[in-house]
Amino acid sequence: MNTESKMVYRGGGSDAVYGIGMIGAWVYYLKGAVTAQQKAIGFLKGIAWPAFLVYELFVFLKKE
Question: What is the pLDDT of residue 2?
Fold first, then answer.
């Protein structure tokens, strides 16, 4: 009898959506970056893209 507990991860599609969004954000932010500082900021913005998305959504909803 096996008494080890098995962990089952069921992340669904949210991980894939975040990953594809992160790659798209990197392309968007890094395509115009010239200096190393701009590239570093673009890289960090690519990681935090959901925060920018939610912020812009709240700004949009506040206008109505």
Answer: 57
